[in-house]
Amino acid sequence: MLEEELHSPTGHYTTPMSNNKTAVKNMRKAEMPSPQINNILVPTDFSENAKKAVKIAVGIAEKHNAGLLLVHACHMPYTDEHMPPAMMQELILAQQSRCEIQMGEFVATQKDLFGKLVPNTKVMMGFAAESILSLAHTENIDLIILGTQGVNGIEDKLFGTVTWNIIKRSDIPVMAIPDVANDIQFKNIMIPFEGTAYDADIIQYLLKFAEKYNAVVHAVHFIQDAPTYNKGVTDKLQNKFRKEIDAEKLQLHFPAEKNITEGIKKFASRNQIDMISMVTHNHGLFSTIFHMSVTRNIALYAQIPLLAYNMDRVQYETDND
After folding, report:
1. What percentage of the chain exceeds 70 in pLDDT?
2. How wide is the angle at C-alpha 311 spanned by C-alphas 164 and 57, nearest 5°?
3. Does residue 160 have a pLDDT over 70?
4. What are 267-288's pLDDT values in tens digits?
């Protein structure tokens, strides 16, 4: 029997998806889509938080035996319409040369950070978000990892032209690392869900990532109107997951919380969550919880790494054995 526990008076139901092997012997084995993390891209501005993002990326690359590409997007030098083309080209080349020297010095002075991993590097001219996303497709990148605070401050980096634009526009999963993060153990991963047709694919994707770390995935459905809530809804959701997913490391939670943002932060704090996974698409709850203002609050105040991906566009490679 699957175990269910009611925590009164909050209306918090917790259901481990598999207590033991015999408990799920009649459960249909789901086809788990694989993230296939073979190539990781890390944009860097050489700031301290960018180093943290690189450190975490190195750990993930080692777990997945993946390649690591460090990228620095140079700002275009100041020019005006009266400047001769030859002078403009000279300024651009000089700027790129300076950036390449910075990149070389960064890699050379951070050997302890990379260990045995030898990163590839790339310096580009142009707007950071556009250049990074274009390069990510060219290089067949599976995961982008970046810091959310750089030399110009968290508001600029997270919600300006770099991190936020990458998260918002990318069809490749993006992991945003806050300034306070150091070593991440990935023991407890949280994903809010609504109860849509997308849920199984989203959670299976996350379970495959978690599998490398023997981590628990906490799928959380918030009950916003607890006094009038029909428990049959949670029963239906539980039955849905029993049929679609057989995973000992998946737990379902149904906390009562009117404010989704506060609910996410409270749950993360109480359950020692190492990473919050959010989904961008235009359906139901996710368009609400991934609104910029809500995501800003999660990223700024939850102080927990955020894994974001676009469920409408992310590509899976499913085992069809």
Report:
1. 70
2. 55
3. no
4. 999 999 999 988 765 444 445 5
Count Cβ atoms below 10 Å from residue 133 Cβ, excluding itself.
Answer: 20
One domain, residues 298 and 191: yes
Residue 19: pLDDT band by 50, 70, 90 thresholds?
A: very low
Q: Do 209 and 282 fall within a single domain?
A: yes
Residue range of the domain that includes 116: 39-177
**Residue 8 has what DSSP assignment?**
T
CATH number for the domain spanning 271: value is 3.40.50.620
- My answer on whether 43 and 22 are in the same domain is no
Considering the domain architecture, whether residues 134 and 75 belong to the same structural domain is answered as yes
Judge if 63 and 150 occupy the same domain. Answer: yes
Q: Residue 75: which of 19, 186, 2, 151 has the closest Cα? A: 151
Same domain, 252 and 142: no
Residues 248-264 have pLDDT tens digits of 899 989 888 888 888 99
Cα(5)–Cα(216) distance, integer angstroms: 18
Amino acid 137: pLDDT: 92
Looking at the structure, tell me whether residues 146 and 25 fall in a common domain.
no
Q: Could you tell me the pTM of the whole model?
A: 0.79
Give alpha helix (H) positions in 65-214: 85-109, 111-114, 128-138, 154-159, 163-169, 199-211
Same domain flag for 19 and 135 = no
314 Cβ contact list (under 8 Å, min separation 6): 171, 172, 173, 205
pLDDT at 31 exceeding the cut of 50:
no
In 3-state terms, what secondary structure has residue 94? helix
In whole angstroms, give the CA distance from residue 56 to residue 49. Answer: 11
Helices in 8-124 by DSSP H: which ranges?
Answer: 48-64, 85-109, 111-114
The number of domains in the chain is 2
Answer whether the bond into residue 173 is a cis peptide, omega within 30°. no
Structural contact between residues 120 and 113, judged by C-beta atoms closer than 8 angstroms: no
